[in-house]
Design goal:
By secondary structure, this protein is an alpha+beta fold. The chain has nine helices and eight strands.
């Protein structure tokens, strides 16, 4: 008994549920186009001159696949184009057919790392500790082990700055023109003047006189006293000169793990290519150029499927001999057509990348500027 091979009947009527994934079964534009596309593909494959060993469901499947491929290619491009802007944003909303405005968020995040190292910002907390120095405490101090008001047990720290705060000059600031003989009494209680006597004389001086006096006190300390200097190697602090009186030396540090940990705990946010939420496009919203690409890709897929079917048997018997089938030819043609269509689409998308559009805009502006230089200025008479 001869096997009945299902062939295209010449017409089809689409109903929901006849595609493998039902991505577009409720899309009105898809419903309107799917049967027309099936008929067009069948005729391009030779119907009704030759039988086409495909059913309506086969055409529906490749049409759905072609739309999905087009959507995927456009979405791939958009993810690559916008990932730098999208990283860190919510992954809950569909970004398909959405305009993405570039921002500086990721650039600022990178700049924060430089800010951390420069000590001018960043996202790693600078902490402060201190050590007490004195005549019996030696000259070398291990800052990993000796500090007060710091609790970093088990964590490595990196010292960023060491400093010694001498007694501020303002605490020793006195006005020689105050005639009480007792100095300024802390500038007469912070300019509130306090309980001054009628014997006190005041002389109005310019501000720079106060600044010069403070500088004189600090310069005197620097020249006549030994201010501490430091040598820091591997968090081993050596103090010069050797401390003779008790005091505190302060240091700023960061916990190494805070800087080395690149992980951000942003649950539900876009992190990479895999979770940028671009869903399948709505077929209705695809323009005519996109739908034409989809039709051609549908034909290539249908040709490939038909070639696979005909390649199952190299030849079939006919009265008086046998005839060779064209399965391999159809598959080779389909492969070439698919590659050409994908290459064309990717090149078209790349031509609309943000960089290429900006370069084109720059060229247009330069051309326009050059053109305007050749336009004569109007002559006004009046």
């Amino acid at each position: 008994m001869a096997t009945q091979i299902p062939i295209w009947t010449g017409t089809s009527t689409f109903a929901s549920g006849q595609t493998p994934f039902a991505f577009y079964d409720s899309d009105t534009a898809f419903i309107a186009d799917v049967d027309n596309t099936a008929t067009w593909c069948a005729k391009r494959l030779g119907y009704p001159i030759v039988d086409i060993e495909l059913q309506s469901g086969s055409f529906y499947a490749v049409f759905e696949e072609a739309i999905t491929e087009y959507s995927s290619q456009v979405n791939y491009f958009n993810i690559k184009e916008n990932l730098l802007t999208l990283q860190g944003t919510s992954s809950g909303s569909n970004l398909t057919h959405r305009e993405i405005t570039p921002n500086f968020d990721r650039t600022i995040t990178l700049a924060q790392q430089y800010g951390t190292e420069a000590g001018v910002g960043g996202d790693v907390t600078y902490k402060t500790g201190s050590i007490t120095v004195g005549s019996g405490s030696g000259q070398v101090y291990n800052l990993d082990n000796l500090w007060t008001n710091v609790s970093e047990s088990g964590n490595n720290i990196e010292i960023k700055r060491v400093y010694y705060e001498a007694t501020p000059a303002v605490t020793r600031f006195f006005d020689p023109y105050v005639g009480t003989g007792a100095g300024s009494d802390q500038m007469l209680q912070g300019f509130g003047w306090g309980n001054y006597t009628p014997a006190v004389n005041f002389l109005m001086l310019p501000m720079y006189d106060d600044l010069l006096r403070v500088q004189a006190i600090e310069f005197n300390d620097h020249m006549r006293k030994s201010a501490y200097t430091f040598e820091l190697v591997n968090n081993q602090l050596k103090v010069f000169p050797k401390p003779t009186t008790e005091g505190k030396i302060w240091f700023e540090y960061i916990v190494e793990q805070d800087r080395k940990n690149p992980l951000k705990t942003n649950s539900g946010s876009i992190t990479d290519f895999s979770n940028a939420t671009y869903n399948n496009m709505s077929y209705t919203e695809i323009n005519h150029a996109g739908k034409q690409w989809i039709r051609k890709y549908t034909l290539a897929l249908a040709k490939e499927l038909l070639g696979n079917i005909r390649s199952k048997y190299g030849s079939i018997p006919i009265p008086g001999g046998e005839t060779n089938l064209d399965g391999d030819t159809l598959r080779n043609e389909a492969t070439t057509e698919k590659e050409n269509l994908l290459t064309q689409l990717r090149e078209d998308l790349e031509a609309t990348s943000r960089r290429n559009l900006l370069e084109r805009q720059k060229e247009e502006a330069e051309f326009m500027g050059e053109t305007l230089t050749r336009i004569p200025y109007p002559i006004y008479i009046g």
